[in-house]
C-alpha cells in the first residue's frame, strides 16, 4: 500500500478502540450491528480461551451472531491455514483474535486471506502487533513479517491485561521503548540512502516512547492503571506504523537483532525483551543516551543483559553481526557492523 515513491498511499487504521475495565461485553458494540455481521469466528488459545475467549463468545452470541471457535496451540503457517479453512467453511464474515500475539496474528492473516475484517481482543500487552496491521508468523527458526490489515476494532480489557503475567506487559513496554532507536535508524536511512521517511509516523512513534518512559515509575505488576498506559502506547505505535505504511517507525536495528536472536532460538526470550536490549546497544552505536534506555527498562522490570535474555556473549555478538542477513534493504546503524565493534558495544553497555 505504498506508491512508487515508497510513500504510504493508504492509511489503514482501526475503526473503534475500546480500552478500560470489564470492556469485553462491548465487543458486540465494536462489531456495530449496522455493519451486518452474522457469523463470527473466535480465534483463541488454550489458556486465553478461559481468560477471555469463552466470555467474548457468550457476548457475541447474546448479540445474535452465530459463533465458531478455533483454538491455536502453536503459532505458524499451519495454524493460519487451519484457521483460514475453518473461516471459509463456516463462512465467517468477521474474525475475533482473542489472546496474546499468537491467536491475534493468526486471526489477522486468516482474515486477510478470506477478505473479512478482524477484531483484536488482547489478553496480554506484550507487543504492538496486537494493534497493528503486521503479523509475524514463525516458520522453523525464521519469522515472516506479513502485511495484512489493521483491526476493525481493538477491545483491551485492562482487568484482564493486569492479570496476565507481568513479564508480558514489561515486554510490551520494551517493544515501545525500542521505538526511540527505530526512529533514529529510520532518519539515518533517510540521510544516507534517501529512504522515504514520514515525519508524522516518526514523530508519533517517538512521542509514544517518550510518554511511556515518563510513566515508567507507574508501571507495576497487578496495577491496572499500568496496563492502560501500556495499551495506549501499543495502539499509538500501531497507528504510527499505519501512517508510515511500514513497520519502520517501530522496527530498526534493535528489531533485526531480535529477529537474529529468534533464528538462534525463538523460545528463550520474548520479542519486546530482545528489542529492548537491542535498543540499548543501537542507541550506544548512535552515540545517544543509551543509559536512559537501560534505566527505563530496569525501572519497568525488563531485561537489560544477555544473561537475563538467556543468551551467551557469543550468541548476542553473532546476532548483531547476523543482522546483515535480515531485511538487508532496511538500512540501520547496524548495517556493516564488524564483529569487533559488536563486541565492544555489548561490553561498553554492560549487555555482557
Ligand atoms: N505482529 C507483530 O508485530 C509481532 C508479532 N509477534 C508474534 O506474536 C507471538 C508472541 O506473542 P506473545 O503475546 O508474546 O505470546 P503468546 O501469544 O504466545 O502468549 C504468551 C503466553 O502467555 C499466555 N497468556 C496470554 N495472555 C494471558 C493472560 N491474560 N493470562 C495468562 N496467560 C496468558 C499465553 O497462553 P496460551 O497458552 O493460551 O497461548 C502464552 O502461553 C509470536 O507468534 C510472534 O511471532 C511478536 C512480535 C511482534
Ligand atoms: O515488531 C514490530 C514493531 O514493534 C514489527 O516489526 P517487524 O516488521 O520487524 O516484524
Ligand atoms: Zn516489535
TrEMBL record:
GO biological process: glycerophospholipid metabolic process; phospholipid biosynthetic process
Compartment list: Cytoplasm
Keywords attached to this entry: Cytoplasm, Lipid biosynthesis, Lipid metabolism, Metal-binding, NAD, NADP, Oxidoreductase, Phospholipid biosynthesis, Phospholipid metabolism, Zinc
Cofactor note: Binds 1 zinc ion per subunit.
Pathway assigned in UniProt: Membrane lipid metabolism; glycerophospholipid metabolism
Parts forming coiled coils: none
Any one GO CC term of the record: cytoplasm
Catalytic activities: sn-glycerol 1-phosphate + NADP(+) = dihydroxyacetone phosphate + NADPH + H(+); sn-glycerol 1-phosphate + NAD(+) = dihydroxyacetone phosphate + NADH + H(+)
Binding site for glycerol: 128, 175, 255, 271
E.C. number(s) listed in UniProt: 1.1.1.261
EC category: oxidoreductase
List of residues binding NAD(+): 101-105, 123-126, 132
GO MF, any single term: glycerol-1-phosphate dehydrogenase [NAD(P)+] activity
Residue sites binding substrate per the record: 128, 175, 259
PANTHER family to which the protein is assigned, alphabetical: GLYCEROL DEHYDROGENASE (PTHR43616), GLYCEROL DEHYDROGENASE 1 (PTHR43616:SF5)
Protein name: Glycerol-1-phosphate dehydrogenase [NAD(P)+]
Organism phylogeny: Archaea, Methanobacteriati, Methanobacteriota, Stenosarchaea group, Halobacteria
Amino acid at each position: 500500500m505504498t506508491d512508487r515513491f515508497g510513500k504510504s498511499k493508504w492509511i489503514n487504521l482501526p475503526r473503534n478502540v475500546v480500552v478500560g475495565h470489564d470492556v469485553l461485553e462491548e465487543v458486540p458494540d465494536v462489531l456495530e450491528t449496522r455493519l451486518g455481521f452474522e457469523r463470527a469466528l473466535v480465534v483463541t488459545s488454550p489458556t486465553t480461551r478461559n481468560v477471555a475467549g469463552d466470555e467474548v463468545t457468550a457476548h457475541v452470541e447474546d448479540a445474535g451472531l452465530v459463533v465458531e471457535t478455533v483454538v491455536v496451540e502453536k503459532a505458524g503457517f499451519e495454524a493460519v491455514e487451519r484457521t483460514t479453512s475453518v473461516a471459509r467453511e463456516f463462512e465467517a464474515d468477521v474474525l475475533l483474535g482473542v489472546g496474546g500475539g499468537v491467536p491475534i496474528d493468526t486471526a489477522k492473516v486468516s482474515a486477510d486471506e478470506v477478505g473479512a475484517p478482524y477484531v483484536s481482543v488482547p489478553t496480554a500487552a506484550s507487543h504492538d502487533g496486537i494493534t497493528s496491521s503486521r503479523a509475524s508468523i514463525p516458520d522453523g527458526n525464521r519469522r515472516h513479517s506479513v502485511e495484512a490489515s489493521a483491526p476493525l476494532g481493538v477491545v483491551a480489557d485492562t482487568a484482564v491485561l493486569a492479570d496476565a503475567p507481568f513479564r508480558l506487559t514489561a515486554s510490551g513496554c520494551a517493544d515501545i521503548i525500542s521505538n526511540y532507536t527505530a526512529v533514529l535508524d529510520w532518519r539515518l536511512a533517510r540521510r544516507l540512502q534517501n529512504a522515504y521517511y514520514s515525519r508524522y509516523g516518526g514523530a508519533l512513534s517517538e512521542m509514544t516512547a517518550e510518554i511511556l518512559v515518563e510513566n515508567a515509575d507507574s508501571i507495576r505488576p497487578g496495577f491496572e492503571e499500568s496496563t492502560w498506559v501500556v495499551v495506549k502506547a501499543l495502539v499509538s505505535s500501531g497507528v504510527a506504523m499505519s501512517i508510515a505504511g511500514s513497520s519502520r517507525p517501530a522496527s530498526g536495528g534493535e528489531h533485526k537483532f531480535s529477529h537474529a536472536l529468534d533464528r538462534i532460538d525463538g523460545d528463550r526470550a520474548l520479542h519486546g525483551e530482545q528489542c529492548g536490549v537491542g535498543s540499548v546497544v543501537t542507541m550506544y552505536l548512535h552515540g545517544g543516551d543509551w543509559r536512559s534506555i537501560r534505566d527505563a527498562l530496569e525501572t519497568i522490570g525488563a531485561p537489560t543483559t544477555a544473561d537475563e535474555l538467556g543468551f551467551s556473549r557469543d550468541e548476542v555478538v553473532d546476532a548483531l553481526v547476523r543482522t546483515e542477513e535480515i531485511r538487508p534493504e532496511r538500512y540501520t546503524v547496524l548495517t556493516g557492523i564488524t564483529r569487533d565493534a559488536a563486541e565492544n558495544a555489548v561490553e561498553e553497555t554492560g549487555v555482557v
